[in-house]
Predict the structure of Transcriptional regulator.
Amino acid sequence: MKFEVPKTKKLYEQIAAIIEQKITNGDISPGDKLDSVEQLAKNFEVGRSAIREALTALQARGIIEIRQGEGTYIRKVTAQDISLNIPTYASFSQQDLQQIFEVRKILELGLIENAAKRRTARHLEQLKEALIKMNDALIDPETSSNADMRFHAIIAEAADNPLLVSMLQSVSKPIAQQIQHTRSILSTTDHAALYNLHEEHTAIYSALVNADDVQAKQAMAKHLETVESLLFDK
C-alpha cells in the first residue's frame, strides 16, 4: 500500500504524523508490529533515513517500541504509565481511559471546592468567556471541546494548587481527543445532549460566582457523571 506524503513539515514529521493517524484511526493497533525500515521506505516512497528519523521521534514520544533483533511495535500503554508527563498521543486501551477518567474525577471534585473559595474576578471572567464560546460553538466539535477543556483548566487554576493543576492537565490529555470525538457524534445525532452539557457547565459557573463550594461540588459531580456516561456508554 502506498502512502501520500504532504509537502509541508519536515519529511520525517510528516511520516510520523501519518503513522500516528493510522493508530488513532484504528488501522494499526497497540501490539502490532510495523513493517521493516526498508518496507516502510518503499511504502512511503522515501529514503530509509527519513523512516528512521520518524521512528525515533515516535519512540521518543512513547508511541512505538523498537526491540533489537525483533522489530518495531506499537506500544501498549497501561494505566501504570500515568505520570506528570503522560504522552499526548499514546495508545491507551478503553479500560485505561476509564481508569484515567476516574483519577480526573477525584482531582476535579477536590479542586472545585477550593476554586469556589479562592476564585477571583479574573477567573470568573475567563470562565464566562469559555462558557460563551462553548455555547456559540455548540455543534463545532473542535472549538467546543477546546472551550470545554479550557473551562475545566480555569477552575483548576482558581484552586491555586500548581501541583494539582499539573496532575489534572496530565490525566486530561489522553481523553481530550475522545471528548472531541464524542462531541462530534453528538453534533449530528443529539443536540439535546450537547445543550445539557452546556447547562451543567452553567450550573458550575453559577455556583462559583456565588462562592458556594457545596453547590459547586454537587454540580461538578453531576457533570462528570454525565461526561463519563457519554464517553463510556455507562
Remarks:
- The domain at 11-74 is CATH 1.10.10.10 (Arc Repressor Mutant, subunit A).
